[in-house]
From TrEMBL:
Annotated ranges, domain DM2: 50-129
Protein known as: DM2 domain-containing protein
Region (Disordered): 27-51
InterPro entries, A to Z: SWIB_domain, SWIB_MDM2_dom_sf, SWIB_MDM2_domain
Source superkingdom: Eukaryota
Pfam families reported in the protein's UniProt record: SWIB
Amino acid sequence: MAAAARVFRGCRFLMAAVGGKRPASASASASAAGAKVTKTEAAQAKEKRGIMQPVPVSDALSRFAGGAPEMSRAGAVKLIWNHIKANGLQNPANKREINCDDKLKSLFAGKDKVGMMEIAKLLSPHFIKAN
């Protein structure tokens, strides 16, 4: 312990780790937090932010999703990619290009082919902004 004190020159934070005790600030923050939050509760709280937040969608996207009145942006992109992969709509010669079927044409403004990077941009008008 004396050697550690010489090395760390009495810094309480570093000495607490050597001595096996938690620093005072760590114990205070743990008690201030109250009850522990489970992983599922933390995951549910995270889902409701940003692109994971469910928002109202247009009628066309709702029909594509099976009647869901609202969905997250990430969920919509995932649903579209599942449809693309299940129906083999990716161009084998150029994997970045998607050949649209009738369902996708209704979402992508009637385009026959779209690039994979265009999907989020073409989906944007289908999410209704709440004011």
